[in-house]
Amino acid sequence: MLYTTEHLPEAVEIGELISVCAVTAANVVKDIRENIRNLVGGEMKHYETLMEKTVERAFEKLKKKAEVGGYDGVLSVKIATPKVVEGGVEIIVYGNGFKYKR
User: Fold this and answer.
1) Do residues 20 and 94 lie in contact, with contact meaning Cβ atoms separated by under 8 Å?
2) Predicted confidence (pLDDT) per residue in 44-95, tens digit
3) Closest Cα to residue 35, out of 23, 22, 44, 26?
4) Distance between alpha carbon 93 and the CA centroid of its chain, in Å?
5) pLDDT computed for residue 94 by the predictor
6) Which residues, including other chains, have CB under 8 Å from residue 24's CB and lie 6 or more apart?
7) pTM, 2 dp
8) Terminal CA-CA length for the chain
């Protein structure tokens, strides 16, 4: 589960910062098409889809890393430097692990 601090129950212990990085390579043929589209304008659907899939994968990695660390979830999740890099997409996701006080 993902929470913000405004919805944080009182019975929660905040843990360490957890971060993950996900990088996905772009398809070279589609990359060429997107570069042409960049010259004439219009939606770059290939890159949008590539970024969405990479963000989803980063969230899954963050969830698994929190579980391995013994946390019940992650709060105050942020996405840093979501950008298209040469030949791919790089996404960094981070937040604080938390545990319910028992």
Assistant:
1) yes
2) 777 788 889 999 999 999 999 999 999 999 988 999 876 666 778 889 999 9
3) 44
4) 4
5) 95
6) 50, 53, 54, 57, 88, 89
7) 0.77
8) 18
31's tokens: 């990359």
In CATH, what is the architecture of 2-100? 2-Layer Sandwich (3.30)
With CA atoms as reference, report the closest residue to 16 among 80, 98, 79: 98
In this structure, how many other beta carbons lie within 10 angstroms of the beta carbon of residue 25?
A: 11
Cβ atoms of residues 18 and 69 within 8 Å = yes
Domain ranges of the chain: 2-100
- Please, what's the b/e burial string for 35-65 (b: 16 or more CB within 10 A of its CB; e: otherwise)? eeeeeeeeebebbeebbeebbebbbebbbeb
| Amino acid letter, 54 | T
What is residue 26's DSSP assignment?
P
